[in-house]
Amino acid sequence: MKNEVKVGGTTYTVEIVDDLAGSDDCFGAIQYKKSLIQLDSNLEEQMHNKTFIHELTHALFVEAGYNDHEEDMANRVGLVLYQLLKENDFSFIR
Ligand SMILES: [Zn+2]
User: Fold this and answer.
1) How far is CA 42 from CA 24, 34, 57, 76, in A?
2) If you measure from the C-alpha of residue 75 to the centroid of ligand 1, how many angstroms do you get, rounded to a whole number?
């Protein structure tokens, strides 16, 4: 996976971190002020990708001006976005 992703006008760095936040249920995090997405190094591939898309969804909302969006909204939209990206070929857009 590339270690950068461009969202709106911002380039986010994607970092793989051992034992992120020292918690079993913290799979990923986003730090808007640092334009940084962090993913736990122990995630298997599918969970790694789903978590990346979830954090990316947070970035999408913030870059669109929805700074105060709900976690539930990021969960729901992130799951649909993950499915959309996984099961369709968007290479025609490039
Ligand atoms: Zn979240």
Assistant:
1) 10, 23, 21, 23
2) 7
The Å distance, Cα 2 to ligand 1 centre, comes to 21
Token output for 54:
């979830």
Q: How far is the CA of 78 from the centre of ligand 1 (A)?
A: 9
User: What pLDDT does residue 20 have?
Assistant: 85
Tell me how far the alpha carbon of residue 56 lies from the centroid of ligand 1, in angstroms.
9
- What CATH number does residue 83 fall under? 1.10.10
For residue 75, the enclosing domain spans 4-93
pLDDT in tens, 23-66: 667 899 999 999 999 999 999 999 999 999 999 999 999 999 99
